[in-house]
Each structure stands twice: as structure tokens, then as C-alpha cells.
Amino acid sequence: MDGNRYLDAQLARELLFKLGEGLAAKNLTAEIALYGGSSLLFTIDGRQSTKDIDYLNMGENSFDLEEVSAKIGEEYGLSNNWFADVTEVIASENPEYSFLGDFPPEKPGLRVFTATPEYVLAMKMKSPRSSFEGNDVKDIWLLLEHCGISNADKAIEWFDKFFPSDKLSQRDVAILNDIIASQQAGEEYSPMIGW
After folding, report:
1. Cβ–Cβ < 8 Å for 30, 117
2. What is the pTM assigned to this prediction?
3. Which of 43, 59, 130, 131 matches a 20 to 30 Å C-alpha distance to 182?
């Protein structure tokens, strides 16, 4: 299998199930929160795949998560970073999560939450990569639609809720305004937005 393959929601769910089985076999239960594209697979329409599963470990068992995920990655032919701990990257003072499920349900080894769409929107707005570097601009487009946000002031209110000590750069506000202007003009998403 290709180590650079993309994960759709079905495969991501299967991998979470396998992780839960592996942890349950060790009589462990880990709690994680999904972030980025992996959380969007389960929370909004429009995001079809992700390169990896970004997660925040909400409890203990870090070593066990890494050990079990490495075995699963090898079994499925995935890249070494298919299951990426973003604990060092996430810095919101006010995170917001929704419960996704226990994996497997009958004997959970993994309890999974997702960052809410509003929270992911704030994170994506914080430092969006161009459409040629990643999916941030397209994700912001989809999240604005999903959250029913049609002006920059409302989007910035959401950002301030999750990152009250941070301010968006002029570049980030310009990208946000470009996205909203395109949506209000009835345009389809284009990778040239924010470029």
C-alpha cells in the first residue's frame, strides 16, 4: 500500500476501531480529541479525506497509543506520521469538543472526541496555509458555510472566543475577507483564493 495514501471517514473510523481494540487488549482506555482534517471528516460535509489523524491525548497512555498506532500503520501500509500527536501545537485557552464515540463500543480501548467545527475554524484562521500548501483555506470556506458565518466580524468573534490572547495578522484577515467576498458573490471555491 502507498505510505502517502489519504484517509476517508470510513478508513479513519476503521483505524480508530483498530486502535481501540489494540488498547483494550492491554486493558487500557485512552481518551483523545481529533483535530484538523480528521475532525472535519466526522463533523462537516465537504471534507472527503485527510493525510493523517491529528489528535490531542487527553489522558495517559501516550506510549501505548504510539506503540499500537505504529503496528496499525505498518499493517495498513501508512506513513509513520499517520497518527500525529499535536499536543505541542494546540494552545487554545478554551477548547471545545464533541463526543464521537467509544472504539470498539462493546469494550472501549479508545474514547474519541472531536474539536467542534467552530474551534477548528478558529485554529485554521490562526495561520492558514495557502491552497497550494494544504487544505486550510478550503476548510475555512467549508467551516464558514457550516457555521453559518457570513461576515468577518462574526468569524473574528469566534476566533477571539478560543484564542483571546491572540490577534489575527493582516494577512489572515485579508484571506478571511477574500473567502467571505467570494462566498457572498456566489462563487464556487477556488484554490486561488487567498493566494
Report:
1. no
2. 0.89
3. 43
